[in-house]
Amino acid sequence: MKIRIDSNFPEVQAWVQKLGASVNTASREALNRTAEWAETDVRREMRKVFDRPVPFTLRSLRVFYASARKPEAMLWFRQRSHDADKLWARPQIAGGQRDMKPMEMRLQRIGVLPQGWFIVPGDAAPLDAYGNMSAGEISRILNVLGSYTESGFNKANIKTRQRLRKGNEKKGVYGFEYWVNPVGGSRARHLQPGVYRRVYTAFGTSLKPMMIFVNRAHYTARLDFFGIVNKTVQRRFPDEFDKALRSLMATGSASAYRKQGVK
Q1: Which of 12-16, 145-149, 205-209, 235-239 is predicted with the least confidence, judged by mean pLDDT?
Q2: Dihedrals φ, ψ of 196, to 5°?
Q3: How far apart are CA 20 and CA 16, in angstroms?
């Protein structure tokens, strides 16, 4: 989202004609300060519309500051590309199907997850403080299923599976193994396709759903990113420009008012 000086702010053009190019310094300061306000407003909205957003999500915004060479400020997300199609938050902003996650790509490469299918946590999956499936459980499943094949990773062997199945009687931990109910399989049609824990107890066995395979992961737009930024620009920029211009004329510095605590 780029923030520029254009016809929406005729007062800037009027001051440029009156005071000359020095006004550009004030306009750049106002642009940058407005972009910071927009960052604050978008982050505040994230906390409202997302369920327990992880710190990565709240830190994902970045202000690209205006300079004399490029008199425009921009608020976007921290990523290598500015391309909206490659943005992790795209489904949250525009709706639609999300991109595949790394764990889904791994399971797809070893033939566990078919193309076009996605993963959602099962009812028995352990969750972290943010409501996401715990990283430890994901890593263990990927390891046991053999999706870690790169150098530096230990592919699960027979001893690992035997240890998990044995459990720990002293700690009251039941033994278990991971079992995949494949998409289109005929072994357990009454169960959703996915990855299950087959838990072994003194009373028999039970299946606990860890990962469920779904053939779509569609999101409804929840974060009005562009609307929020536009409103912030219209509300904040005129005042920020006025303060920066007054500061420039009084002190020779468009940003001096910040140091003085002027709001």
Answers
A1: 12-16
A2: -120, 155
A3: 5
C-beta neighbour count of 181 within 10 angstroms: 19
**What's the per-residue H, E or C state across the chain?**
CEECCCCCCHHHHHHHHHHHHHHHHHHHHHHHHHHHHHHHHHHHHHHHHCCCCCHHHHCCEEEECCCCCCCCEEEEECCCCCCHHHCCCHHHHHCEECCCCHHHHHHHHCCCCCCCCEEEECCCCCECCCCCECHHHHHHHHHHCCCCCCCCCCCCCHHHHHHHHHCECCCCECEEEEEEECCCCCCCCCCCCEEEEEEEECCEEEEEEEEEEECCCEECCCCCHHHHHHHHHHHHHHHHHHHHHHHHHHHCCCCHHHHCCCC
The pLDDT value given to residue 213:
95
Contact 66, 28 (CB under 8 A): yes
Given the structure tokens 């923030």, which residue do they identify?
A: 3
| Cα distance between residue 107 and residue 97, in whole Å | 19
Query: What's the rounded mean pLDDT across residues 139-162?
Result: 73
C-alpha span between 228 and 35 (Å, rounded) = 11
Strand partners, 191: none
The whole-number pLDDT of residue 108 equals: 92
**Digit-coded pLDDT (tens) for 5-26:** 654 566 666 666 566 667 788 8
Characterise 215 by phi-psi region: left (phi > 0), alpha (psi -120 to 50), beta (else). alpha
> From CA 127, how far away is CA 107, in angstroms rounded?
20
The CA-based diameter of the chain, rounded to the nearest angstrom, is 87
Taking Cα atoms as reference points, which of 215, 228, 232 lies closest to residue 92? 228
- Name which of 231, 245, 233 is nearest 262 in CA terms: 245
